[in-house]
Amino acid sequence: MNPAEIFLPGSIGVVSRSGGMVAEIGLALKAGGYGISSAIGMGGDAVTGMRMADYLRLFEEDVATQAVVLFGEPGTDNEQEVAALVASGATRKPVIGMVAGEFQERYPPGISFGHAAAMITDVAQSASAKRELLRKAGVHVVLSLEEISPLLGSLLR
Q1: How many domains does the chain have?
Q2: Is the pTM of this model over 0.85?
Q3: What is the percentage of the chain residues whose pLDDT exceeds 70?
Q4: Which of 71, 106, 113, 150 could bridge to 16 as Cys pair (CB 3.0-4.6 Å)?
């Protein structure tokens, strides 16, 4: 896969729990006329080198980044940390968040699906709960990739 077929250079930071979704977000942004300042696939394991909120702090300091798109999933407390950071006012740039995996809420607790850390052991780790928490914190929550570019258009006016 040639990155030039997926990504345009630009001003949108991307951080995702899924490497494959980094490419999907890149394609969605490209289709909407937006490019990427940096894109991070942090992986779906329980232990990662950095936390999602750490990347958000770096994007906040990056003069090349005007807005950030986050992709989360059930399990871990990464999105809860992001919500706390945004709610604290430590971020001024628009943050768009998408949390997939609501279907997993129908399964018994403790079942991993896909990535190793995509396991709901507490209701707060569910996609639905994370989306609501992010929304209340001030993150612009979307349910589909197709919503991202139009939302960026209104946020970056």
Answers
A1: 1
A2: yes
A3: 83
A4: 71
